[in-house]
Design a protein that fits this description.
Low-confidence stretches of chain A: none
Number of strands of chain A: 0
Largest interface: A-B, 33 and 28 residues
Order of helices and strands of chain A: HHHHHHH
Radius of gyration of chain A: 17 Å
Strand content of chain A: under 5%
Distance between the termini of chain A: 55 Å
Number of helices of chain A: 7
Mean pLDDT of chain A: 89
Oligomer: homotrimer
Structural class of chain A: mainly alpha
């Protein structure tokens, strides 16, 4: 199990935790919480794979199903302490979207699509899971209203191509573009930066 | 038209009825009610087929489109009496999820996936239609909060494999695993058994 | 760039504008508004292409991504005047669904499906984008409750086949069936015609 895989699993765990916790806040039962956690973790990559016409990545190995189960167990056992770990989860989550974005870009490259599609697929991989989560729990998707989130994924995709242009070795391209996502995400939250919202027409 | 097909059509009818009735409760127009009924009936199998990369099953023959139309007609004509038939629909619905689960497991086996994917595909086939229905009518999906529903599908998928292990003939495998779903579903409703819910963190 | 392409782009623009404006009314940020605009414009065709098992149409050329960006820019710049253009947008939108319906029917024909599937694919292409838009902004889909919308698409699909039966040249078939959608849509709004709704059972 290489380093990338370890990070991927931690990212999946952090995503699943966020789904399980929001489901718990809505009084979902254990199974519902599991499903929301799973969709949060694998939803973005699944939508990407359907559009690229390849088999959804999580159907190739049971890791993601198991990690979501561990996330559910974790929330059940450490329910009272889980709030204190918010910062830890936030870091994992940021690392997760960074890594997911790079994975998404590379899946799309492998399928032979042009640059701009690859950047979009990176953003979908990193951000669409959270969007599905919010639709399932019947909330307006958070990523559309708060924080820099999907935009961080788009930045990461662009950085990926800048690195390719500079002919950096593959591993540098991956690390630098994932870091770009993570840094944009962390800085935007730390300094409370968010995109302006469109004012409704009647104001 | 064999026995399985008859059951499949009754299950589709029961699913479509549940979609049409919930749409009516939200004042949808006739077309909207039809769409919600159709999505409830075929949504689970469609998501399964997209993930297995085969053509959605309902596109192969017009039966499902027609049965949904009959369900809409049925609700329009027998609107005042339909409530009294709740128990009948409940039975059909339970039989429907039992059969849909078996169909889903077998589609996934035919596509060459491993056991755990097949069980998930069975559960998606049986339960995802109701989930889409609730998203369309803008409610928190019921299957995440009440009753044993998707869990019954998972049980059926596991029973399917236990029967395979015992090397029972195919038709016994199908009937026993469908019955497992139906029995779990009926008993859970009869005795008011539901999964515990995750308590929100602030309690 | 031929005439059909010009109309396609204007239709896309009108669809994207409707998504962006509704997102603005819900205080989405700029990125969220862009995503909702994009999903409104390309969501129907994407669902169609996933079910027909072809690559989503917008992944073949960047036009749709760019047009959605222009729509966002347009709403930002002309925010105060955009309400006055409601009638103009309505016309573009009606032309858009007419054209989208024809495109959807023809994609489905090209993929070798029977008549009734083609008509459904036409309706999905014309109407599903607006449905996704409403799910994203957490509203009950408008097309299920008000006006003749998806039904106009279905009418257009049927007219398409009547024209084929009359062995009209291809371009006439396209124009007449698109016009059928547009006329049904405009007349239903002008005269306030809508489908009856199913009365809830307790009334």
């Amino acid at each position: 199990m290489d380093f990338i895989t370890v990070i991927d699993y931690f990212g999946t765990f952090a995503f699943a935790i966020s789904g399980v916790r929001l489901a718990a806040a809505k009084n979902f039962d254990l199974f519902g919480a599991y499903v929301v956690g799973f969709v949060t973790a694998v939803g973005g990559g699944t939508l990407r794979d359907l559009m690229l016409d390849v088999t959804p990545f999580w159907m190739g190995q049971p890791s993601y199903v198991i990690i979501t189960g561990l996330a559910l167990l974790f929330v059940i056992i450490f329910r009272k302490y889980v709030v204190r770990l918010d910062n830890t989860f936030f870091i994992f989550d940021a690392i997760g979207i960074g890594l997911f974005t790079v994975v998404g870009v590379e899946c799309s490259i492998a399928a032979g699509f042009p640059v701009w599609v690859n950047i979009i697929m990176g953003a979908i991989t990193g951000a669409a899971g959270g969007m599905f989560r919010d639709i399932f729990i019947n909330e307006v998707p958070l990523i559309f209203r708060k924080d820099i989130y999907a935009v961080a994924c788009v930045c990461g995709g662009i950085v990926y191509y800048l690195c390719l242009l500079m002919e950096l070795p593959q591993v540098f391209v991956q690390v630098i573009s994932a870091l770009a996502v993570i840094i944009v995400r962390l800085l935007s939250v730390k300094f409370g930066i968010s995109l302006p919202s469109l004012k409704p027409e009647d104001q």
